[in-house]
Amino acid sequence: MLGDSSPVLELAYGVTANGNWEGQTILSRIRDDAAIATTFGISQEEAAALLAEDRGRLLAARDERPQPGRDDKVLASWNGLLLAALAEAGRVLPDGARYTAAAVEAAAFLLDNLRGPDGRLRRSWKDGRALHSGTLEDHTHLADGLLALYETTFEERWFVAARELMELVMERFAAPDGGFFDTADDAETLIARPRSLQDNAIPSGNAMAATVLLRLAAWTGDGRYRSAAEQAVAPMATMGARFPTGFGQWLVAYQQALAPVAEIAIVGSPGAPDTAALVAAARRGYRPWQVVAVAADPATSGVALMEGRVAIGGVATAYVCRNFACQLPVTDAAALTAQLAARTTAPTVPTSGEPPLAN
User: Fold this and answer.
1) I need a surface site. Which of 21, 96, 108, 195 has the fewest CB within 10 A?
2) For 74-258, CATH number?
């Protein structure tokens, strides 16, 4: 099938008579073009061409076999996590524009196709149909991704959508003793209404709910969000300290609850150079316990953190706040950096007990 060039592929991909897995060979590129060229006394270009030809023959042979089934449904919760990753990549990587574009496209698709007229999510989408009532994690994970996208683009439609989803969580999923159920209050009646707490392959809906609510509280000043998050987080502190690998997202939420969260409001057009300089300063370094809001016209903003802010002297202006009490506004990136550096203190998760949560 591979002809006279097969020794080139065998060397490049580690093909041997004995194989590398139970008598068979799992192809793995172990030598580069330069090593192949040296071994066979040919140029790197010739080596690359021979390998490309061999790979084409292998692909043609594979295409003749029955193809494995493909799971091509779209899940709200999983795509919410992807959305957050894309948005954060767009924010920090040098070639971030393509990640941001992908995040915007994904967010628009999810909201257009998985959100019903009542604002509630369906769990999955496939072949043009949205199916099954959304669970807690569908709403919380997508809300988390939307907030990440807001902090990347500062388009308030993403913030508004995230807040609407969490209002539904508060209304439909809340448990009377704190925390949240996995299913809505009007879902199918079961012997016991499920309530998952442990973080597994993906964060639990409860832990993500607490994380997102704490972030929303920092943007909005709404005490309902913080109170609901604290009621969910406090009972989990001991479990998170004893079994951290099973409660990773809970530890994130717990630290968020204890941290001196910096609320950063920047008045200015998101595309303007002076605004961009302040945004870059706010993003520089590792400060996980902060939220950033940007608006050209605070009077029309739907983010409460922007309320009452003004641009000093007509230039972009930043306010560093805590619990909506702000330091003196600054218009210089270096001054903003200094204010943020003075406020960064990592909270400590206790090893036992359940101390009161206070920001």
Assistant:
1) 21
2) 1.50.10.20
